């Protein structure tokens, strides 16, 4: 009989996987890596790196390319966040979250009787926040990029003008928006063929989008915010019950912020600050879990899941009751990422009993949308970009402003449609995330970078609404606590908890029947869930952080500045995407 180990080929001399992986191996490369939700966008990014552009340049090219090839979530009509770590150790964060139009107020989505009107914050022009993507990419490029905008946008313009051939994953995904596209002539003209979804093999040409991109390439954000594109979007909004005005576009500003940081068992997490809740949820959860022997308890043991759920319950409670746009709400973020605070939280966690969520206090949770996408990039010098941007729902508000080819977001749904109304438990939600003119809705997007001993170790992020911080958390923990290689860490089934609803959701096969019985005995409500994430991740140095052979390099970039080998993985939970390196 052949020993199991002999069946596992070494990836490279000296780089034997730390575990015998049941997953395919991560994509490996020496000079640069791009992981995104669309193969053609990943390729556009790698080409930039090959020509000597840095990770920020590549991120700009990928983001514009995704706006063409991945209309599900790639966008210029939405917004997002970019976490950047430069090779010299500087860390920063670009916030290009959408803002509420000036005419928006706390009762925007309520009827005269004060009842929330279903669908108004999710479909059509009234759901649209002022897009931030063009301003955000420009801010990142002018401060940290090296290449001209027009050069980086050229692949996106070509993909829109000349079209690209839909593969089966593209076609399947696009078809999921067909019903709503049929109601919007601007979208139907592009994404449908006489009312029917385009089949695989069709070349999808987007001429209006090509023209809009060419205008932005030439004139920069002015084309979008004060020029013809803003005019067209405002005209479409006014003709269709929306409230966008020229002043909303003219006033839009992307903002550079300090990322949130924390340490977990010697690993340093760099992630998204408010108006995202991502970094807070991630850090607070990790801080609480650091006090438990998670590695010894083992992957998805009943006790380990119990502690993880109790930590998430508390972190999401803080998220939902405390956080909002820092320009509007007074926030003491450091309090939530403090180790002492986590220790006090642990005192309230019983090892054998679930805490009823309602006992923690006032709720604010609202369901979040289902469409976002993440890009992870590392270049040859060791600059890293973790970029998550979104239209909120897949295809956003499912309206395309005529003449622009631009699908618009429904990010307004991330606000609380009605603060102060008792939820199903009779509890009242706070007003931190109420709608106000110019305000950014609270987000869960968590573009994250991890370092070890001062060196780049990991870039990770995902779509998934409120499942974003839990997805990122579990991939990091799978690597750090369980020694999985990156592919195993991404593919491993996940669980999710978010305070309210008071339940533990699990992917199929995540929990065995006896584990579920042990969790039920502690008082947890278990429900099976579908797939919410598409993790796009890179690790640096070696594919796993687990026990290494004596001659293995440690995970993380080499201390001597030598080029590190890079390993990229795209989550197989969605039918598109690729990790590509060179
Ligand atoms: O900002 C947020 O948290 C949401 N708008 C993200 C939505 C999302 O990730 C849906 N993706 N599947």
TrEMBL record:
Catalyzed reactions: glutathione + H2O = L-cysteinylglycine + L-glutamate; an N-terminal (5-L-glutamyl)-[peptide] + an alpha-amino acid = 5-L-glutamyl amino acid + an N-terminal L-alpha-aminoacyl-[peptide]; an S-substituted glutathione + H2O = an S-substituted L-cysteinylglycine + L-glutamate
Pathway per the UniProt entry: Sulfur metabolism; glutathione metabolism
MF GO annotations: glutathione hydrolase activity; leukotriene C4 gamma-glutamyl transferase activity
Binding of L-glutamate, residues: 97, 390-392, 414, 443-444, 465
Gene3D superfamilies with a match to the protein in the record: 1.10.246.130, 3.60.20.40
EC number(s) recorded for this UniProt protein: 2.3.2.2, 3.4.19.13
UniProt cross-references to Pfam families, sorted A to Z: G_glu_transpept (PF01019)
UniProt record, GO biological process: glutathione biosynthetic process; glutathione catabolic process
Signal peptide: 1-21
Transferase found in the keyword field: yes
Active-site residues, record numbering mapped to chain: 372 (nucleophile)
Swiss-Prot/TrEMBL keywords: Acyltransferase, Glutathione biosynthesis, Hydrolase, Signal, Transferase, Zymogen
Processing after translation: Cleaved by autocatalysis into a large and a small subunit.
Family: Belongs to the gamma-glutamyltransferase family.
Subunit structure: This enzyme consists of two polypeptide chains, which are synthesized in precursor form from a single polypeptide.
NCBIfam families per record: g_glut_trans
Protein name: Glutathione hydrolase proenzyme
Native species: Novosphingobium aerophilum
Gene giving rise to this polypeptide: ggt
């Amino acid at each position: 009989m052949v020993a199991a180990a002999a069946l596992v080929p070494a990836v490279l001399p000296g780089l034997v996987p730390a575990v015998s992986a049941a997953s395919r191996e991560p994509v490996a490369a020496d000079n640069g890596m791009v992981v995104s939700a669309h193969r053609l966008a990943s390729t556009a990014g790698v080409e930039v790196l090959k020509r000597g552009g840095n990770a920020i340049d590549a991120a700009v090219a990928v983001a514009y390319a995704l706006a063409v090839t991945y209309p599900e979530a790639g966008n210029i009509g939405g917004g997002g966040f970019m976490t950047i770590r430069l090779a010299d150790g500087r860390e920063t964060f670009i916030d290009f979250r959408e803002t509420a139009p000036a005419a928006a107020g706390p009762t925007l989505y309520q009827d005269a009787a004060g009842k929330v009107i279903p669908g108004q914050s999710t479909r059509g022009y009234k759901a649209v926040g002022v897009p931030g993507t063009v301003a955000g990419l420009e801010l990142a490029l002018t401060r940290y990029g090296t290449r001209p905008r027009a050069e980086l946008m050229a692949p996106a313009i070509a993909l829109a003008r000349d079209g690209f051939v839909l593969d089966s994953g593209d076609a399947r995904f696009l078809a999921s928006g067909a019903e709503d596209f049929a109601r919007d002539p601007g979208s139907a003209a592009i994404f449908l063929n006489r009312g029917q979804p385009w089949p695989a093999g069709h070349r999808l040409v987007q001429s209006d989008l090509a023209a809009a991109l060419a205008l932005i390439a030439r004139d920069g954000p002015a084309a979008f915010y004060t020029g013809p594109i803003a005019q067209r979007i405002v005209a479409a909004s006014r003709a269709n019950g929306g409230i966008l005005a020229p002043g909303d576009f003219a006033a839009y500003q992307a903002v550079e912020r300090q990322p949130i940081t924390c340490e977990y068992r010697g690993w340093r997490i760099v992630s998204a600050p408010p108006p995202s809740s991502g970094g807070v949820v991630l850090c607070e959860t990790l801080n609480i879990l650091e006090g438990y022997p998670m590695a010894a308890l083992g992957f998805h043991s009943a006790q380990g899941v119990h502690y993880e759920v109790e930590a998430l319950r508390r972190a999401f409670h803080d998220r939902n009751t405390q956080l909002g746009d820092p320009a509007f709400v007074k926030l003491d973020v450091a309090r939530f990422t403090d180790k002492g605070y986590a220790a006090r939280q642990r005192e309230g966690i019983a090892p054998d009993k679930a805490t009823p969520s309602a006992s923690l206090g006032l709720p604010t949770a609202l369901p979040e949308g289902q469409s976002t996408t993440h890009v992870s990039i590392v270049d040859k010098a060791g600059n890293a970009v973790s970029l998550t941007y979104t239209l909120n729902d897949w295809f956003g508000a499912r309206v395309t402003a005529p003449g622009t080819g631009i699908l618009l977001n429904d990010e307004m749904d991330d606000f609380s449609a009605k603060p102060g109304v008792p939820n199903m438990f009779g509890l009242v939600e706070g007003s931190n995330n109420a709608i106000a003119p110019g305000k950014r809705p609270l987000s869960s997007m968590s573009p994250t970078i991890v370092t070890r001993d001062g060196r780049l170790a990991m870039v990770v992020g995902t779509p998934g609404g409120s499942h974003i911080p839990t997805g990122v958390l579990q991939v990091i923990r799978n690597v750090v606590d369980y020694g999985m290689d990156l592919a195993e860490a991404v593919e491993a089934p996940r669980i999710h908890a978010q305070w309210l609803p008071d339940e533990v959701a699990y992917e199929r096969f995540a929990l065995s029947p006896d584990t579920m019985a042990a969790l039920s005995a502690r008082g947890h409500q278990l429900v099976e869930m579908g797939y919410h994430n598409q993790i796009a991740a890179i690790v640096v140095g070696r594919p796993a952080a687990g026990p290494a052979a004596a001659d293995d390099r440690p995970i993380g970039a080499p201390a001597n500045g030598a080029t590190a080998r890079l390993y990229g993985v795209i989550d197989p939970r969605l039918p598109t995407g690729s990790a590509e390196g060179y």
